[in-house]
Input
Amino acid sequence: MNQAIRNTWVVVVAMFMVLVAAISIIQVVAADALKNNDFNSRQLYQEFGSARGPILVDGTAIAESVESNDDFNYQRVYHQPELYSGLTGFYSLSYGATGLEDKMNRYLAGTSDGQFVDRIVELFSGTPMEGAQVELTIDPRMQQVAYDALPEGTTASAVITDPKTGDILAMASKPSYDTNLLAVHSGAKAAQNMEELQSVPGLSPYVNRPTASLAAPGSTFKLIDTVAMLESGQFEPDTTVDVPDKITLPNSSTQLGNFGGGICGRFDRATLAEVFAQSCNTPFANAAMQLGQDRIRTTAENFGFNESIDIPLTVSASQFPGDLDDAALAQSALGQRDVKATALQMNMVAAAIANDGTLMKPQLIDSIRGSDLTLLEETEPEVFKRSTTPEVAEQMTQMMRGVVDGGTAYRAESGTVDIAAKTGTAQISAETDNVHSWITGFAPADDPQVAVTLVYQNIDFDTGSALTSTNLKKIMEAVVTQ
Output
């Protein structure tokens, strides 16, 4: 009898251990695979019917889940959606998740490692858990100012960062859209809304333009050229250089010239600081060929080119190509040909110069807290690259001041804020007279608080050149603390 009881006990214990092991495998090891299975409709309904965590700006929700009177129990709602659509992305039953809704999903959905205890409590108590709160680095006032600097009807981006920390204080773009249109629970309505959105010129609901759209940076790339020139020891700001009106590119009949009708045509020789302020092309093309492609490329990469990062939005790698002959190098040194950059990349160039040559990693997430406000993660400033020396950064700052004080960014000169900047105009193709108009800079020049970058893509020259400097001035005067 005792032996039979013992045998039964062993079997019961063994079955219990198998049950515990099975639960552990299902809840831990295979959880992600099961949740992501395309045939798991129950999981799909559960996710869209759960209290997903909010995305916050200055403590206020810009995306949150509210109770609904349908099969899903909760509806994802976006506040001021046009202002933040590029950042939040959308959370859609029909089209999945994009933007921060995608990148921060494990926190918002409550599936991160830091929320493991909450999931265990939910398992045994039956009480639905809420996702974590994701607080952004965005300053709502600066976000509005940046957004307002982009006129309706333009394809444009604006980025404002803190050079000392890498915090992204504003990141806006146009055209924008209402993310609520894709968060609807009706598949038919979502499809109709998506079709209408994709018919808008320049708009893709899947793209955050400041981090994903690559465009030729034009003469803003001369920031890279000039750093390379100063670091070589062959040039100083007061070094006199030749300023030919045109040069013939090596092994070709192609001519490269300065901007027609510009100030550069008024002198044959000038200092480096002067040609930088007036953005003369030929001296920088000649200098690039003199220094060689390796030095220019290395300098570009020291500022982040040719490297993709996550902030946590994925930032497309800005491009400076390899294996260039001298003709291609001369054109590339002017931010043309195959050189491409995101708005964030050219902001990183200005920010590194503003921060004594040290580039901080751009950050979009300030902190993550559980539904009970327990701190799960907090972002600390992180050095990304030592882009150049403090001495070169100071020389660059003074020359960028000259761009505003009588140079190509003269419209950005302010009576209240000391601004350092560099303009750029990139030709698109021989088939159009439209250009990409850029400006990137920082203020105050002697103790920078913000780095600001604006790019207006595929725009006529006169409109673009008027928008860049005047709007940089407006932004600086609005956001810099006096």
